[in-house]
Amino acid sequence: MIEFKNVEKKYPNNVKALEDINIQIPKGEFVAVIGLSGAGKSTLIRCINRMHDITRGKLIVDGIDIGKLRGYEIRKFRQRIGMIFQSFNLVTRISVLKNVLVSLVPELSAWRKVTGIFSREHKIKALTALEQVGILDKAFVRVDQLSGGQQQRVALARTLAQNPEIILADEPIASLDPVTSKQVMNDFKRINEEMGITVIMNIHHVEIALEYAHRILGVRDGRIVYDGSAKDVTEEVLDHIYKGREDVMKEVEGEKVYV
Ligand SMILES: Nc1ncnc2c1ncn2[C@@H]1O[C@H](COP(=O)(O)OP(=O)(O)OP(=O)(O)O)[C@@H](O)[C@H]1O
Hints:
Distance between the termini: 31 Å
Strand content: 25-35%
Helix content: 25-40%
Low-confidence stretches: none
Number of helices: 9
Bound molecules: adenosine-5'-triphosphate
Largest sheet: 6 strands, mixed
Shape: globular
CATH superfamily of the domain at 1-80 and 192-259: P-loop containing nucleotide triphosphate hydrolases
CATH topology of the domain at 1-80 and 192-259: Rossmann fold
């Protein structure tokens, strides 16, 4: 369970990115965070793994007040939370398998990284994760030879290999075409349903968010203006989240995308 209690995030330049956030996210939910550019979506997600520190309130994850964690405790806590980015964050000049292995053992000594000597247990874990996202056949291919969608699946496998309880995804499909986007979203759905991993995702594609997520958080000017089931999201709700900013709406292949 993730709990935000009166959470505020003010950046050092005095921009208040989050204000009075009060939400609870039970284990196993698939949550999509939607809203205009600059609304505070990334900040909201990144506070959960302490990439950003909140400036007021409390953020409690499985009973732990994460604001109180220090140094090593933060690193240990982060191992339970996977993070997926728009830009994949892979090492493109090495193989798919090695990308997963290296992140699996971040404390690995330099010589092991260079020589590629990994334990049998780690190799099995890495290969299993690649199988879970359907790219086991690419294990020995260099990452720069893969499509964007395949690279995002490698990033997902890398996260899965760490056995996370929560996956935070910051615009994971923003640089993918519509067909590949759906494949990646299907991976997230399967991971959420079959492994019970909580997924919290920032996403600009409203229709995709409504199709895949159980719950929608609509953020506007740092506040939650909608919190409810995806199936209850109406045109009025979307207007409330995006109102006055139709100028930032684009239609891409019949789908509304807010940019
Ligand atoms: N490191 C930072 N320092 C100062 N201000 C920041 C920082 N990061 C974000 N902000 C500001 O905080 C507000 C919320 O930004 P955030 O990135 O969370 O929004 P977002 O909804 O994720 O936007 P986008 O969809 O464009 O990624 C914006 O006004 C932004 O300019």
